[in-house]
Write a structure and sequence with these properties.
By secondary structure, the protein is α/β, with parallel strands linked by helices. It is built from eleven helices and eight strands. The longest helix is centred in the C-terminal third of the chain and has 18 residues, at about 280-295.
């Protein structure tokens, strides 16, 4: 049995059935699985800041890499968790790895969660954190990033920041985004069960996040009337993921709007594989992601005419 199947068997047998619980019970059950980061030494230091944004507080944890790349924008990271659970703590290990692997200072955002708040509120918190963090960035710009629902919040925040008169958006990295409230893509049928995160679970997340309301273009970029041309974007998806088709489709929509896109499609991987410590295929994908980020977003590389141009990025093929 290969490593991927062993991991899927473990996840399928041990992850709680969140969709059978109340939102509060589901959040407690998911967050109870969080363990302390096994890699504290990956960064030189961390510090927690509290940002006041539109009358409420947003906690942000800053990760300072040992070897900061002065040409890298600061990364503003939004954790996954279906808009319902997850936290700075749940993604502490991954943000440490991100800082080490990319040389980018990372700001992890504790955005507002459902059912108390809608996805639009999560995106607003990420955008507010980005505006605040831009002053800390050596380039004066930020890279918005996230996974799952956090990827959706980061993508939505990118659209918000694109309207600002002062451009601070260097680009975005979105991993297996949870974009479509209707859950209507083909992979919701073909990957509905058996691959860790299920169609039923994603449906539950959306129902909880929208609290009976109608989704809008402020909740997810999937419903935007049109997409602007954005800075370079990296999209990571797994072919076994119930969300794979919507991630692939969103990459196509970005390209149609003349946004340079790298799509990394791992056909034999499942939802969440990128952030799992100790999982071999995830570790390999992370190394490629760090390389993509450094090559795409470091201003030192961008100033070198020998490096990849935005046009080449726009036509990058699907990779596995």
């Amino acid at each position: 049995m290969d490593e991927t199947q062993r991991m899927l068997d473990l996840l399928n047998s041990t992850f709680p059935d969140l969709a059978s619980m109340s939102p509060r019970e589901a959040r407690e059950a998911a967050d109870a699985r969080v363990r302390p980061a096994p890699n504290p030494e990956d960064v030189a230091a961390t510090d927690d800041q509290v940002l006041s944004a539109d009358g409420h507080d947003v906690t942000i944890r800053i990760y300072h890499p040992h070897d900061r790349d002065p040409g890298m924008p600061l990364t503003v990271y939004a954790h996954g968790g279906g808009f319902l659970h997850g936290s700075i703590a749940s993604h502490d290990s991954f943000c440490r790895r991100w800082a080490k692997g990319t040389g980018s200072t990372v700001a992890s955002v504790e955005y507002r969660l459902a059912p108390e708040h809608r996805p639009a509120d999560a995106a607003a918190d990420v955008a507010a954190a980005a505006r605040w963090a831009a002053a800390l960035s050596p380039t004066g710009t930020v890279l918005l990033a996230g996974d799952s629902a956090g990827a959706t919040a980061a993508a939505q925040a990118s659209l918000v920041l694109a309207k600002d008169p002062v451009g601070i958006l260097a680009g975005q990295v979105i991993a297996y985004p949870m974009l479509d409230p209707e859950c209507a893509s083909e992979s919701h049928r073909t990957r509905a069960t058996g691959y860790f995160v299920t169609h039923r679970q994603i449906r539950y997340y959306w129902d909880t996040a929208l609290t009976g309301g109608t989704p809008s273009g402020e909740d997810t970029p999937w419903l935007a009337d049109s997409l602007p041309t954005l800075p370079a974007t990296i999209v990571v998806i797994g072919g076994l993921d119930v969300l794979s088709d919507e991630g692939r489709e969103y990459a196509s929509r970005l390209r149609a709007a003349d946004t340079p896109v790298i799509l990394r499609d791992y056909p034999d991987q499942f939802h969440g594989f990128l952030t799992m410590p100790g999982y071999g295929p995830g570790e390999s994908a992370r190394e490629l992601l760090w390389s993509d980020i450094r090559a795409t977003f470091s201003t030192a590389r961008a100033a070198d005419p020998a490096t990849t141009s935005p046009t080449e990025l726009a036509h990058e093929g699907v990779s596995s």
